[in-house]
Amino acid sequence: MLAGLFFFNKNASNQAKVVQEVVAEELDREMAITIESGMTFSIICEQAGVDYALMNDILASAKDIYDLSSVRAGKEIKFIFDKDTDQFKELIYPIDSEEELYVSKNLEGVLTAERKVIDYEIKIKTVEGTIDSSLYQSALDQNIDIRAIIELADVFAWTVDFGMGIRVGDTYKFIYEERYRDGKYIMPGKIIAAKFINDGKIIEGYYFYEAVDGNGKIIEGYYHPSGESVQKIFLKNPVSFKYISSGFTTGLRYVEAFNVSTGHRAIDYAAALGTPIKAVGDGTVSFAGWSKAGYGNLVSIRHNSVFSSNYAHMSKIYVKSGQSVSQGDIIGTVGSTGFSTGPHLHFEMVKNGTKVNPMTIEIPSDKAVSAEKMEEFKNSIIQWQEQLN
Ligand SMILES: [Zn+2]
User: Which of 142, 149, 220, 385 could form a disulfide with 209 if both were Cys (CB 3.0 to 4.6 A apart)?
Assistant: First the structure.
């Protein structure tokens, strides 16, 4: 029997390619066990028919990669037994969504363990919608995997405030990868291209992998059709859409906006107690502790010689003065400490010593696509642009 399944294979290179999967006539015996809470590795081995000595060998060979004595409930562990001898051949355990532990036995009976990148089959999907109440609700209404919507919000986290900045009638359309294994849908993968029309303004972002720099750092990101980066030095909102959508049914809302006439030069976000707060940009913590000025637990971050940001009324602080932080790092949680009537985040942006409106200030963009790669980038987005427009 020859079963040909055509999918895009994401792994080998960044360029999607078509692969053919061939299923051999005779198969090794495979046993998949879904780990339940309270299940130890020895219970799992017992169920799989793996004896005590072999279990210890597996544990020992895997220990530098993953400690199998602390397997996690909800994951699926696979045992492969040889089709001729029915002897143990392989164990596969998912470390996270990207990597797996492989323990295999060679013909001499020696076990080796390795870490492998999970080779998902990739399907390309396009979805679109119009917002009636919230982005979250729109995704639910259309049965869009909410994890894909969270990714979408992350792509535009520098330009659109998905907590409060969206309007009824805003539209979105995006193309993304869906990850499958053995024909079964697992999770959304990377967003390839996205378009968001926010309050009449069109924002487009296209994924582009540029290169690996001298330090081994991957240069990739989302770029406007012009090649300018979608990313900016500051995030639009210190509370991620991910936290707004996960269980906060009422969503995030303004308690008070930036208002020069009333003297409230900050944005107040009402959010559930304990909601994580992110650093909007890279910087150094210049203050972390109790403020005597009514701010309660306060964190201040100095981003550069021009900008700093303040986060007040926090319930918990996770950073220390002098510490450097990266954009998106969780610095603490929403609270109601100091002069505050309920859980909210009082957020201030300071430019050259003056409090400025974080919603309207011009924020510098990250690095654009390099001149050498610009033509390649422009060619790579043509097909996606056609699909989006
Ligand atoms: Zn305030």
Answer: 220
